[in-house]
Amino acid sequence: MYEPHAGQRALVCGADGFVGGHLVERLKLEGFWVRAVGLRRAERQAGADEFLCLDLRQVAACRQAVAGPQIDQVYQLAADMGGMEYIHSAECDTLGNNVRINVNMIEAAAQARVGRYLFASSVCVYRMAVGEAPLSEADAYPAMPANEYGWEKLYSERVVQAYRRHFPLNVRIGRFENTYGPFNPWQGGREKAPAALCRKIARVQPGGQIEAFGDGTAVRAYTFIDDLVDGIRLLMDSDCDEPANIGTSEYVTLAELIATIGHISGKQFEVVYVPGPVGVRSRNFSKNRIESMGYKPKYSLAQGIQITYDWILQQVRSAPVLSSGD
Question: Among 27, 79, 81, 190, which residue has the least CB neighbours within 10 Å?
């Protein structure tokens, strides 16, 4: 099913996070020896060959992460991040923490002479584009990201590209779109729209109300986690050393996303739109570069949301409430 990589060693930074946990599982299926690094040990990293609890904001921690036998592939996913509400409320934290992590990790990887290095960037690097043709990777310039998280990602892209020019280091940059699926944060303040809405709809009583930020017209594409991991692996093993957008081209409004989740839940409810951070009004990105590598998403929004809603419904039924924002 997967190309064998027996004997190769991979390092996943941010392995205690949503994407990192899924990536660890995929790499093990492909035959990699995997070192997982995170701030806390999580059950889903049990399959890793080694887990190191490290704070990658620290130079010494980054050096420890790449120490020992030669690492063939580094996946730098570690980041201080969350949904739009968190990104807007924690600008100083996301800027400071993420720049420290990214500068320290690429320096440590370059000095250790690792083989390949993938940096998890974001489509937040782009400006708002309403009614335009799909933006290519080059359209990140002239730069005008909508938030500080986007500016940090763009700066960190330039850092890793500079190291590519001055060290024998194969760099890959994936610009991720909104990603969702089982094991994504679903309560507590860092969850993104699909998970937050699944939680609210799972909890609402038939005929009740849920709240959503904005007016329902903001447009996004939402990528199921397995499709994102497919794109990550294709990009890492490719010859592409320029940024690549990874995601789907199934764009929906927030209102359409809510309707999809509502249909899957089988519930009738009222949506009350309230003021809050919604990010840019519209986004539309070209996937030509990643598709040229053979990338094709396997999951429609309805299929991915069905899996995600079922998982979040199980969590709602078994977990205590951490937030009163429902």
Answer: 190
